[in-house]
Amino acid sequence: MELVVKEQVQKELDHLANKDVYIHLETTNGAYASHFDETFFSSGAYIRNAYLKYEHSKIAGDGPYRIGLKTTIGWVYAEGITHFEVDNQNRLLLAGHDFNGKLAVTLEISETPFE
Amino acid sequence: MEQERQVLVIFPHPDDEAFGVSGTIALHIKNGTPVTYACLTLGEMGRNLGNPPFATRESLPHIRKKELQNAARAMGITDLRMLGYRDKTVEFEEEEALASHMGELIDELDPSLIITFYPGYSVHPDHDATGAAVIRAVEKLPAGKRPKVYCVAFSNNCEEEIGQADIIHDVTEVAHIKIATLKAHVSQTQLMVKEMEEQLKNNDPMVMARVNLERFWTYKF
């Protein structure tokens, strides 16, 4: 993965607009957060292979970035995105890695279902 | 350590075996006991991806699968089963179906000893769910036919509630195999192993004890 280049990511997002796409969206603080710090409130959310179409998208901020996808009847967004990659299956992978190199958020968009 | 006829190790993530059990596995194999390792997921949801990242959410399972195979080789395990569940979803599986799957493995292998996580005392929801499914499967067997079950526990409250571990294995003679196993899971253990080797060189008593002694709680049915 490479550090986000805003214009390039916007181009990739535009490329996938108005198509039927599969979405992976995830936020996580790790399963051990409250084990190591009992005052920590552990939370996260995960959806794999949500099937939708978005008509408009935007990458915002100065990094870490925020990305929003506007669908016909709703929204998808992710915050804290630092890295991106278009992988060998042409999927747009976006992720946010924290200061210790741990993944904190992922937004992935693909024209074929994720395994 | 007691001589076993067949050992079955059941954990949800590649590397769950490395920290607290790989020495015991290596000793059983050294004693000529066949060991089967059933690993439910490929640790797809691992968070250690580095910054700059060395893997993506999508490439990580492929990397961890290879690491798991390398770890099995390091321990001398020839029967590695990858069960195809998904990381962090084990607790949401239908409990009876998961227990039946564990039961099939137990029927097939007829182990004299099963090693898994102690349900309720193993921190990660996948750990607790895996342990619970194994216990549920073993409970279905008539009391006289049940294998021994040694559980790994490490929640902050575990000793308060279930007491001290009753089985302690000194695995010093295979510590090098344990380190090799830890190293095989390179994406997960890179930084930790480096530090650990340094501390071992300096005979740090805490680290020596952590590497050389493996602790289990016998599950009481």
From TrEMBL, chain A:
Pfam family, one: DUF1806
Listed name of the protein: DUF1806 domain-containing protein
Species assigned in the record: Cytobacillus horneckiae
TrEMBL record, chain B:
Protein name: Bacillithiol biosynthesis deacetylase BshB2
Organism per entry: Cytobacillus horneckiae
PANTHER family associated with the record: N-ACETYL-ALPHA-D-GLUCOSAMINYL L-MALATE DEACETYLASE 2-RELATED, N-ACETYLGLUCOSAMINYL-PHOSPHATIDYLINOSITOL DE-N-ACETYLASE-RELATED
Organism ancestry: Bacteria, Bacillati, Bacillota, Bacilli, Bacillales
Pfam name, any one: PIG-L
Cited SUPFAM superfamilies: LmbE-like
Cofactor(s) needed for function: Zn(2+)
One Gene Ontology molecular-function label: hydrolase activity, acting on carbon-nitrogen (but not peptide) bonds, in linear amides
